[in-house]
């Protein structure tokens, strides 16, 4: 089976799918358009793009991605399946052209259309579209599919930190700051890293860094932690990769995402749900032992389970 995965893989998580499927014997090509470098040729072109985005809902960067993807596809033979992840980053005209290179095209969106409204312009162009956002599945008639497990069980008994988190500096900062201050008072060993951007938030209880951590560095921190913290983004209830990191590691999770209760792997011994507006941490949660989930449930969220659904 010849498969191409087209994705904006800024963290290397989609490459995990590619590597796994190749190990399973599939002939898989990965076109990671995050690696394509778009540059304005002049200040005039930058102004032109503002006009395009404002009046025609077009973006030169999305058009550029589409052109470069087609160049890559032209180097390969006809595919049996093309899976596109974050297809809303590609101009709709080029999605039509991408479809001619495969017997079947499917899309997977792990953002909500409330956060990324361009999803509404492209989801219907594929033979089938999946989303991790339940509201989008209901309102846009997409099929439901979560992110996937890419980590392996952690068998350590002692950890450097009781809880950790890596986040960007966005509207979750105040919640993180509140939680970290609370943990500090509780003498809980924690490490929360925030990637600095144009905002200039300050905190005495958070570690603020200028350089983005690699996936390997984040995995190292996760391995040193007993529990992971997940703060879901505004206008999004789909489960982040942090949830599936925990499932793979067999680690406990503290999360603000209340919808996690509706999933079959939810267990209050493993997952503590806190309120975004008043995030109170129950110290007893750190003393609870992780309770393993059944193999049948676990399989659904593995890469094999994910691919079985998206390729059927």
Topology summary:
Layout (H helix, E strand, L loop, with lengths): L1 E6 L5 H11 L3 E6 L10 H14 L3 H14 L7 E5 L6 H8 L5 E5 L9 H4 L5 E4 L2 H7 L2 E2 L16 E8 L4 H13 L4 E6 L11 E3 L5 H9 L1 E6 L10 H9 L2 E4 L15 E3 L21 H6 L2 H8 L2
Helix pairs in contact: 3-4
What structural class do helix, strand and pairing data support? Answer: alpha/beta
Strands of the largest sheet, in order across it?
Answer: 2-1-3-4-5-6
Tell me the series of helices and strands, N- to C-terminal: EHEHHEHEHEHEEHEEHEHEEHH
* CATH classification class of the largest domain: Alpha Beta
Distance between the termini: 13 Å
Domain count: 2
Sheet having the most strands: 6 strands, parallel
Q: The CATH topology of the largest domain is what?
A: Rossmann fold
CATH architecture heading of the largest domain: 3-Layer(aba) Sandwich
Mean pLDDT: 96
In DSSP terms (H or I, runs of 4 or more residues), the helix count works out at 11
Measured as a percent range, the helix fraction is 25-40%
Number of strands: 12
Brief rundown of the structure:
With 312 residues, this protein is of the alpha/beta class. It has 2 domains: 2-145, Rossmann fold; 161-293, Rossmann fold, CATH 3.40.50. It contains 11 helices and 12 strands.
């Amino acid at each position: 089976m010849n498969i191409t995965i087209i994705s904006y893989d800024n963290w290397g998580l989609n490459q995990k799918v590619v590597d796994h499927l190749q190990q399973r014997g599939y002939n898989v090509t990965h076109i990671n358009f995050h690696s394509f470098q778009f540059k304005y040729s002049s200040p005039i072109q930058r102004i032109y793009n503002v006009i395009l985005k404002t009046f025609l809902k077009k973006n030169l960067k999305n058009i550029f991605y589409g052109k470069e993807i087609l160049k890559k596809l032209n180097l390969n033979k006809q595919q049996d399946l093309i899976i596109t992840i974050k297809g809303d980053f590609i101009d709709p005209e080029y999605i039509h052209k991408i479809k001619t290179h495969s017997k079947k095209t499917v899309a997977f969106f792990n953002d909500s259309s409330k956060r990324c409204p361009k999803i509404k312009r492209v989801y219907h162009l594929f033979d089938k579209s999946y989303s991790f956002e339940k509201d989008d599945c209901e309102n846009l008639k997409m099929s439901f599919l979560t992110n996937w497990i890419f980590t392996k069980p952690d068998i350590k008994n002692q950890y450097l930190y009781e809880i950790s988190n890596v986040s960007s500096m966005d509207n979750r900062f105040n919640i993180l700051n509140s939680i970290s201050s609370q943990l500090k008072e509780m003498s809980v060993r924690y490490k929360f890293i925030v990637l600095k951007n144009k905002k200039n938030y300050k905190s005495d209880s958070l570690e603020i860094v200028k350089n983005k951590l690699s996936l390997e560095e984040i995995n190292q921190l996760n391995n040193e932690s007993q529990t992971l913290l997940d703060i879901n983004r505004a206008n999004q209830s789909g489960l982040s990769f942090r949830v599936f990191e925990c499932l793979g590691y067999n680690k406990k999770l503290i999360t603000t995402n209340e919808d996690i209760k509706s999933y079959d792997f939810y267990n209050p011994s493993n997952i503590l749900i806190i309120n975004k507006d008043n995030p109170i941490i129950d110290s007893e949660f750190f003393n609870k032992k992780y309770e393993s989930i059944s193999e049948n449930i676990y399989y659904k969220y593995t890469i094999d389970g994910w691919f079985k659904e998206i390729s059927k």
